[in-house]
Amino acid sequence: MTNGFVFAVTGPDYTSLVRQAAATVAEHHPNIPIDLFTDQDCTDPVFSQITPLNAPATRPRFEALLRSRFDKTICLDADLFVIAPIADIFDVLGHFDLAAAHDQRLNVASHTLRQHSKPIPAAFPQYNSGVLGIRKSDRADRFIYRWKEEFENSPSIIDQPILRELLFDSDLRIATLPPQYNVIDADLIRSLDSRTMAPRIIHSSRLHLMRLNSGQEFQTLAELVGPDFEQHLQEWLLRDKTLNSNRPATRTEPFCDKFPGIPVHADAKAFAGKASWKQTLLTWLGRIASFGRQ
Q: pLDDT tens for residues 128-149?
């Protein structure tokens, strides 16, 4: 069976951002192809194949997943850094239809608590679709098509509440990934030491919010999370036995103990754009409206 990574983006900002994300994937997976679906002209050797999107959409991941050439696909958002190998997700997809991690902020009325058409038990929380593994099958394709259709017929600007409901009612086999495979909120891991698995992916909306708000961008992990936390992550990765069988015997203390009172990000702003999301809401809505519903 064929394995591959897939990105799907629209617009020049995200197409520029996705090249950076793809480079971090390639660093840890030099022999696994990375495909891009986009509505922009783009040439970059990091991508094995660049495919034009058939139609503009606010969620191009639907088209990319349906058209993926791989038997097992890991579809990633553009606003992330892969900091360790994640190819074992492909192994998981040998036994499951879909793999994803839970969203880490599960008590947000405007997002993770939002209902699509009916209540879902809190014990079946929302999955974050920014790191999504799919095993190709007719059943999986039907699921993705319905997810796409439900989203396009919904007034919602977020697709994950719909994903949650459809997964709850589906017969797909779901593999719930550890949160380290999609770290959205650094507050979740500041208090963890090296007895726990090290993060694999740092997924932050700051990557595109910075570009959207100021035209600047974070080009390295250290710029995103600050040099102290970046160094802490490297020490943690070195001591993760699932990544390094010859790990050092010493334990890495939690970041909050090594640097008490010091925020994760160097400029003391919220890690995932939590302090700035209201400032960008109108810009987001304007961009979304420009696409319309397909």
A: 999 999 999 999 999 999 999 9
